[in-house]
């Protein structure tokens, strides 16, 4: 800050300069800015988790309908070709249910349940 210095008659006789070290204040402001950014990021992730959980829940409900109707069809059908098609529907629904569990785990609504799988069996399922 610079102030004019005047004598008793008001005549300018010089200037006075006052400086302040604002290093600590700037560091505190930067720390606050970073904390606010982290909070905003955390809130975004929380919102994403809630959205993901809601979508996963709705998707799981639809899969239950598909799976249930596939089971009913499987009991009514007799020819092998149509039964294979229904089994394909059931397999796709089961994969969707696995995906739903993973989405729910991401949204922190359900714990992950890791399992050991046979890659040979998984590849055979695609044939």
Description:
By secondary structure, this protein is mainly alpha-helical. The chain has one domain (2-125). Helix content is 69%, strand content 9%. It contains three helices and two strands, in the order ββααα. The protein has helices spanning 23-76, 80-106, 119-125, and strands at 2-6, 12-17. It has a two-stranded antiparallel ribbon. Helix 1 (23-76) runs antiparallel to helix 2. The chain is rod-shaped and about 115 Å long. The mean pLDDT is 89.
Layout of secondary structure:
Layout: E1 2-6, E2 12-17, H1 23-76, H2 80-106, H3 119-125
Antiparallel strand pairs: 1-2
Defining key terms:
single chain, 127 residues, mainly alpha, two-stranded antiparallel ribbon, 3 helices, 2 strands, rod-shaped
Describe this structure in a few short sentences.
The chain is mainly alpha-helical and 127 residues long.
On the 0 to 100 scale, the average pLDDT is 89
Radius of gyration: 34 Å
Structural class: mainly alpha
Separation, N- and C-terminal Cα atoms: 80 Å
Strand order of the largest sheet: 1-2
Helical amount among residues, as a percent range? 55-70%
Number of β-strand runs: 2
Beta fraction of the residues? 5-15%
């Amino acid at each position: 800050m610079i102030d004019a210095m005047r004598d008793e008659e008001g005549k300018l006789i010089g200037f006075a300069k006052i400086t302040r070290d604002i290093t600590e204040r700037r560091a505190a402001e930067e720390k606050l800015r970073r904390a606010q950014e982290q909070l905003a990021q955390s809130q975004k992730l929380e919102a994403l988790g809630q959205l993901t959980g809601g979508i996963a829940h709705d998707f799981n409900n639809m899969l239950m309908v598909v799976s249930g109707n596939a089971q009913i069809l499987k009991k009514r059908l007799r020819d092998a070709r149509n039964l294979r098609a229904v089994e394909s529907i059931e397999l796709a629904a089961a994969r969707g249910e696995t995906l739903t569990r993973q989405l729910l785990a991401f949204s922190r609504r359900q714990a992950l349940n890791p399992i050991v799988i046979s890659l040979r069996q998984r590849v055979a399922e695609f044939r």
